[in-house]
Amino acid sequence: MKTIFQASGISKHYGTTCALRDANLALKAGQIHALMGENGAGKSTFVKILVGAVRPDGGEIVLAGQPVRFGSVRDALNQGVVPVYQHSTLFNQLTVLENLSAFGLGTARRSWAKRNCLDRQQANEVLRLVGLDVSLDSLVNELSLGERQLLEIARGVGRHCSVLILDEPTAALGAREADRLHETLQVLCAKGTAILYISHKIDDIKRMADAVTILRDGRTVVNAAARDDISAAQIVQHMLGQTFEPQALCVSNRGDVVVEAKDIRLAAGAQPFSLCVHQGEVLGIVGVAGSGALRLGEVLAGAASGHGATLSLSGTTQIINDRQSAMRAGIGYVPSDRHADGLFLGLSALKNASASVLQRFSSWGVLRLREEAGPFDALIAQFNLNPARLDLNASDYSGGNQQKLLFLRNLVLPNLQMLVVLEPTRGVDIGARESIHQALRELACSGIAIVVVSSDLLEVNTLCHELLVVASNRVVGRMTADAQTDAVLSMMAGAC
Amino acid sequence: MTTFIKQRSAIALGSRIGVIAIPLVVFIVCVLFVPRFLSVDNLQNVLRVGSILLIAACGQAAILIVGGIDFSMGSAVALLSVVTVILAPEHGVALAFACGMCVAVLAGLCNGLLIAYLKLPAFLVTLGMLMVLHGLASLLSGGMPLDAAPSPSFLWLGSGHVAGIPVPIVLAVLAVLSLHFLLRYTVAGRGWFLVGTNFNAAVNAGLPARRSVLLAYVVAGLFCALAGAILTSRVGSGQPNLYPDLAFATIAVCAIGGIPLNGGRGSAVQVVCGALIIAMLNNAVVLLNLTSAWQQLLMAAVIAAAVLLPQLHTVRRRYTHLFKGNAQ
Amino acid sequence: MKASTINRQARFLVAPGGLLLTVCVAGALVGDYASLGNLQNIGSQAAILALLALGQMLVMLVRGFDISVGAVAACSSTVAALTMDSLGTSSLALAVLAGLLFGGLNGVLIAYLRVQPIVATLCSMIAAQGLARLISDDGQPVVPVDASSLADLAFQNIAGIPLLLVPALICMLLVGLVLKKFTLGRHLFMVGCDPQAASLVGVDSRRVTLIAYLACGVFAGLAGAVLFCKTGTGLPTEGVSWALQSVAAAVIGGTALQGGTASVWPVFFGVLLIQALETALNIQGVSPFIAEIVMGLIILVAGGLDRLILRLFSSTTPYGES
Amino acid sequence: MMKTFIQTWRAPLALLGVAMSCVGSVGAEELAIGYAVPSLSQSFWISSSFGAEDEASKEGVKLIKLSAGGDSNVAQQISQLQSLIQRHVGAIVVGATNGDAVRAVVDQAVRQGIPVIGISSPPNSQHLASIVTADHYDMGRMQAECLGEAMQGQGDVAMLAGPAGQAWSDLRAQGFRQTLKDKFPGINVVAESRLADNRNASLNTTEDWLQRFANLKGIYSATEDMAAGAVAALRASGHLEQVKVSTSNFSPTARELLVNNEVVCSSVQQVVEQGRAALRLAVAAANKQTVEKVVSLPALKISAQDVATVNLEQVMAPANYVP
Lengths: 496, 328, 322, 323
Description:
- The structure holds 4 protein chains of 4 kinds.
- Helix content of chain A is 32%, strand content 25%.
- Chain A is built from 18 helices and 21 strands.
- Chain A is globular.
- The mean pLDDT of chain A is 82.
- Chain B has a single domain, classed as ABC transporter involved in vitamin B12 uptake, BtuC (Orthogonal Bundle).
- Chain B has 14 helices and 4 strands.
- By secondary structure, chain D is α/β, with parallel strands linked by helices.
- Chain D has 2 domains: 32-134 and 270-298, Rossmann fold, CATH 3.40.50.2300; 136-268, Response regulator (Rossmann fold).
- A 6-stranded parallel sheet of chain D has the order 2-1-3-4-5-11, sandwiched between helices. In chain D, strands 7-6-8-9-10-12 form a 6-stranded mixed sheet, sandwiched between helices.
- The chains are: A alpha/beta, B mainly alpha, C mainly alpha, D alpha/beta.
- Chains in contact: A-B, A-C, B-C, B-D, C-D.
- At the B-C interface, helix 5, helix 11 and helix 13 of B face helix 6, helix 12 and helix 14 of C.
């Protein structure tokens, strides 16, 4: 196999920060190549450079023996480098067909729109390839999240290309879809496409990647190691620059019922059910995207309507129907999409962290600014927040540290009784993931109820005392944490 | 990382100085090139005219920070003036002004309710309100300017003095101080920043986001009422066309001061700077005796310059590759 | 699926429905309101607003706005009138060119220099007003020596369609075709839905935004030319309220303020609705003050309908999460 | 069955009935006169529309009043005229926003057999049935004369000339400038503002002028509202004695200013009388009678002494009139 896409010595500065110093990568035709690294290691910048969305300051890219300079994504696309992005880049008001053809439309030279679209037969074929069963004429905002992710992948897969770059493609996929994706990628490989696969999931990588490249601190520390030459532990070590050992699960000291939720319907007309959360327990909720698992978390946090659900604190008859009353009752909440629903990106970290407890340092509506930072000093150290200060903009922190800010916000709630965390470590690097998990365990030990909703089964398994499996907008199973992974998986998949 | 932080705070400091620097430059240019600009009387004129704009702009700023916009201010002050002048002879000046100001606050409340609780787009609500309130003012006044009996008490707000300082300037200083206090030191002001930055996040953080939006419009109504009362007293009349483009003027003030229109950022200092620039400019073009055409062209150029200058460095960075590319 | 389809259609039905209602009610109250002649009349009256609203729709499609359209139209009409005597009919092309220049100014400020649309177009509005005053005698209407033939022509009908409306109709056909069939149209929708995503699939978002503003400027210039034909005069101080009216028409016609949703014909119906209502109020002799209040309420309600429909159907959207 | 039908549809049926009867009432041919003016927010047009409306009720014709909503809304006025043509009114009275711009549509009306009467600022058309006018040029001239005398022929004058592009303001300003030039060569016009067209803007502009022009002795104002703004500025800065103000139009505001000696004079049209005359002409023309080509009502110069003696009924609508 020959190297068809090679990037060497890539560097990129933003202001005085150095995102990439010396990044190297060599893709071979017909090979799946994994790119790994912690958040902040420069992965996303590197990917943006490879697909032409960002210009590098130095280094060179060679495609099929020819040095190239991509001025824009359009240039890259025209030369056969096709991206599948991590964040949704679909167009809600356009049809599935038009979205499938988005690359063709985007780079079009022909002015007649139809000429730049796939023909319907081709389009259906591509959809079948990734296992997506929707009409070509439906609008994207009629699709579920999982379907959207598949469509996003189909768009990349369906375009003939020499290099396919997938950024966290399985984040919103269930196990079955993920398997299917892997099969599809094998097919493409067989046709000679070089595939760059970016993922956090080590077992994913171990299962399917032919070679692994690891970035740390803007440098390539492992360059194209063959899969069998490197162990999972080694991968983690290279990513972190150190080793870590997973913490043992905290012993359950389940106490009284904290929150009682009755008549929850996850969709209008769905079957209602009830749920109790106890002091000191970590309750995990799993389900594939679109199953209603996230919705259940939102309902428990008071952030979404449960179609007639009543949520009450134990011992009181107080009905909680929005976030405001939920927060007053001591229910903390970390939403799944931290940029859209959690953070105030333009404001300082301190303002982000103190948003829920303005009352705590104010009297008669007047803030005592000197007291604002007080409660956070200890927590910053405990959480290993980096940079360890709160006067920077929230947007200046890496993903993991942004997630930590959201935890800080909830931990200072004066009467925290229950913390609902959706996707606690999505897009978060391993170091941050560990400190977040540790903090959740300690919280549970101190008697606070924790609800964790995650699509990452491994995470839920290491963290939770009890598991709820949600599929098709209802709870299909309830089991203790040591349950067989396979059983859970089949339950997640079986009902949907 | 540390150098990065240092540079960041340097930029922050730079932009903070920049905010004050632009009006200073305008002031110096005016002093140098505009005849008779630098006299106590004239500067008092500048400030008096600027103070009305400034007070109304304080309201607009609060709304912009919370992520909204208000086009209806011009009509609100018009309705206020008409109501005040109609009520003054029978119910006394104080009560008349109180009622008039209530009307303006009510208009703000209406805007706020429709926007925050019925989730209507601010742009359309305030646009519709602009027409409705103007129609009401015309209906009440019969379309014509109504004259107030020129009692000293009626004119005090607009042309009186407190300790030798014109009342509008005193009130403007108070308004700016209270806006500064609101934005920096109160839960309500903090709420505006949070809601304006990210409405969803504010809801999820358990903040009363809707109420926060409503409050911003009511507070803006208050500022607008104060500006309208001064204006009414100053012209001694109630008119449907009292200050038709007040809303645009205040938006321009905020834009020149550097307050972005997509919410979450802004400060009282920026409002002051924007208002001062516009007030000085308005005064200078008259003193220079420019024709109305050149007055407008100059105004457009200054707005553009004020908006573009602060982001010059980012623009240059964004397009350096063009020049680099050519060189290679 | 159905809910969203209804949602998609319903917002575009507001304007035609409102128009039908207005014509029926006014037709019942006023003698020959619903006659062909009066409908032609309404069409001819709507000619300028239709062009402006069309441009406004395009920039709103890419998440913008243009409050300079009225001033640009006035400035263009002045340009046309000034050059009429020396250039003849080609002065109309010059009017369009003037519009193009202002559209380009807006587009560059907004797309490439990242100035917010309201501020940028406020700026060019003031500049256009100033320029119009500058080239005319400080705002005096410009009367060319011979424009009477043009003005007489302006009130004719061809094939039952008012001549004044013809440019607007042609432009609407063109824009409709571009939005439906051309790659550029897809690009406009993509940028409107999500500008960043559009860049990431290879669309040059800034160029597309610039094109939208250029088109808006061209239509404003054309509106100026129509104004000149209609009045035979260059009117430098005209059009103060047109920008707001055009926004209202576009929104009533189902254009979403948050971008990404627009359709040509509903916008045209929105224009006709505003014009029909105004004509009805005029003919009935309703007090102009009350007429103003009614128009204000209509704009309020139009914004409300937009939201109401969204709310009615959003609770039943099929995907539970997000 | 029928009963339920009627019960369900009772309300709509009733409405329909009302609507039909309305149609019926319109159908009974009543002479309608269109009356289109630039703005019903100015005392001038309000007074004139009072005259027209009062006369219309005497004559028993229906008056359709239309306001373009501002001096610069030419296209709006053209649209309104189109509507009037479409409605086949008997005759149209037009106070033009711009005489040249509305010419085409006015010719259109005449071609359709609707006589058009110009009032005060008439359309610039050859085919008008009649013109009722006061001479705006003359009003400017009168201001120049009395202001010039008040200034004793010396000093600087600034002009609040009113909105640009309107026939009335342009003519008044022209008359003023020309007369000053001819009769008072010692007086200089040092500044002219066309942006300051309301009271607040006039007030601000006058304040600035007082700073700029030390030798300012007089201010011309196109309307009484602008004069009120100028006077407020003068009063506040104590310049009332030094700077004389002249104005045009008559209204409660103007009367107050005159009585207090704050303006030296106001040149006034017999506005109400114009409205009446225009309506009489319109009715006559609608009935195919021949009418006078030009009815010119002389402008009056009112100063403080005259206020008591002027027949206000001819120049101003009563205070309680709402158009």
